[in-house]
Amino acid sequence: MGQADWTFAEFERATTLREDRSYSITILTEDGTHSVAIADLGGFDQINGWVTSNAFTAGTFLDGSDARTWLPKPGRSLTFRLRTAKYSPVTRTVEVGEVNVAACSDLMPLLVSERPENTAIEVEFEAPNGAKYITGPSVNVQLPSAITGTVKVRLRLTGSSVLAPQMLPYIQVVAGAIQSEGDYVSRAFDAGTDSKVRLFCDVYLPSTATFSANIQTATGGDGLPVWSAPTLEKATPLGDGWEERQYMLDHVNSAITRGKVKITGGPSARSNVRSVRIVAVKSTTG
User: Fold this and answer.
1) Distance from C-alpha of 135 to C-alpha of 143, rounded to nearest angstrom
2) Alpha-carbon gap, residue 83 to 255, rounded angstroms
3) Which domains does the chain have, with CATH numbers?
């Protein structure tokens, strides 16, 4: 067969075939005049002689007339050539562009990609001061300090001679700015007369970060809560810098109460608080 006898079906982009899946070449036509090269076991090939073995023992030829029902024919094989991609070089760096940020403390790249085994996509951000930060798709970069200016974006694609990562031709960079402080107010619930209110939470306070807790002890004339600072009863280390804290405020006389926690910090001191719980019971002290 000459090259002119072959029909080349080209995909829009290279397609990765997984080892644990089976694939088929499906040929459908509504044309009454068509032909493909097929070898039948026991038949005679004018070029290679008698067909004495199945060319593809790992696959089965299927035939059907309605594109829904397929009849296996193990003694028949379709003649085809399968082309594979060859990549060179195996590592490539792409200058994506630049993004302008203001008071930015976090950067996250968003992209759609396919990364076969032993391939990788890395995203590099170069800050205005020349510092470089390397991350992966959808992985946040926490900057040590807020930056303002132009950030350069690069992609580093790594693969092999036969496998390479692929991505759609766009990338989105999400730039975030961490606030210097944040607070959380729990839901209100009944407290009553002479209650002992306890507030529990887990805190993470690196470096210069701070934390404060308050409990509602009354409702002001404007309808807003009146807050009072409780006493720290217990602090239990949880590991990895986390600490469980227990606060208490006794003799609370308020129809309803709630808790409020506040943290301060910044890019270099990323404080956190979780699992805020608050309960009120009848006071047992005089």
Assistant:
1) 12
2) 77
3) 1-83 (no CATH), 91-176 (2.60.120.380), 181-282 (2.60.40)
Say if residue 243's pLDDT is above 90.
yes
Strands 189-204 and 242-257, bridge-based pairing: antiparallel
* Sign of CA pseudo-dihedral 128, 112, 22, 26: negative
C-alpha dist (Å) from residue 69 to 36, 43, 130, 154: 20, 26, 62, 49
**Number of Cβ atoms within 10 Å of the Cβ of 39:** 20
Q: Which two tokens stand for residue 238?
A: 């949880």
Distances (CA, A) of 199 to 36, 231, 249, 264: 77, 10, 9, 19
Q: Retrieve residue 23's tokens.
A: 């694939």
Q: Count the Cβ atoms, other than its own, within 10 Å of residue 141.
A: 18
Task: Report the pLDDT value the prediction gives residue 148, as an integer from 0 to 100.
Answer: 97
Q: How far apart are CA 266 and CA 240, in angstroms?
A: 19
Q: Which contacts of 65-74 are long-range, i.e. CB under 8 A and separated by 24 or more positions?
A: 67/28
**What is the pTM (predicted TM-score) of this model?**
0.75
Angle, vertex CA 26, rays to CA 21 and CA 9, nearest 5:
100
Residue 257 to residue 197: CA distance in whole angstroms: 9
Q: What is the pLDDT of residue 75?
A: 84
Which strand (E) or helix (H) includes residue 218?
A: strand 210-219
How many CB atoms lie under 10 A from the CB of residue 277? 12
